[in-house]
Amino acid sequence: MKKLLHLSPLIIILSVFIILAGCSKKKNSPQISAGVGTYTFNGTNMYTTNDTLTGDFFSGGKDVTMWPTSSVTASNLVFVDNIPAQSSGSVNLSDGSNQSSTAPYILGYNGQIHFSSVANSGSVTKTGANSFSFSCTVSDDSNPSNTYSLSGSGTY
User: Fold this and answer.
1) How far apart are CA 138 and CA 115, in angstroms?
2) Is it the case that residue 1 has pLDDT exceeding 50?
3) pTM for the whole thing?
4) 3-state SS assignment for residue 6
């Protein structure tokens, strides 16, 4: 009986562990929504694979990363943030270098220049539930007087 009393706490702990392990819910990993797209930065065309993990917490829209299919590094990325949730309509872009609102904005890197959208210089247009287009002026973050044209479209 004394041996059983010594084993009793161990048996209880193991029993609780087995019960909890069997009852735990399986957690699904986040589903990456993938799409395709194209963009033109100052006359140079890029084909992309687009992804978004979740909706934007503050705006309810989507944050989409456009990854060029020809680049294996982080060069030539374009981030289109706060894409509106509705299926149609157009929204003006905000200043990407100062994201203080929930309005859409664009950030990017072309291998040499970090750039961001200039406030009210363009817009994002929803062309369907999971598709969009954009056209705007972006400025060099280290020298804002240098501006470039950026346009594109895609799905997510």
Assistant:
1) 6
2) no
3) 0.74
4) helix
Please give the C-alpha separations between residue 92 and each of 74, 79, 96, 136, in angstroms, as whole numbers.
27, 16, 12, 9
Note the pLDDT tens digit of each residue in 3-33. 444 445 545 554 545 555 555 444 554 455 6
Here the tokens at position 136 are: 């705007």
N- to C-terminal Cα distance for the chain?
66
Contacts of 145 (CB under 8 A, 6+ apart): 139
Please state, in angstroms and as integers, the Cα–Cα distance from residue 46 to each residue in 52, 88, 91, following that order: 19, 25, 23
Amino acid (one-letter) located at 148: Y
- Residues in CB range of 49: below 8 A, 6 or more apart: 34, 35, 36, 37, 66, 67, 69
Cα–Cα distances in angstroms (integers) from residue 8 to residues 18, 23, 69, in the given order: 15, 23, 61
- pLDDT at residue 21, as a whole number: 54
Show Cβ contacts of residue 123 under 8 Å, excluding neighbours closer than 6 positions: 90, 91, 92, 93, 104, 134, 135, 136
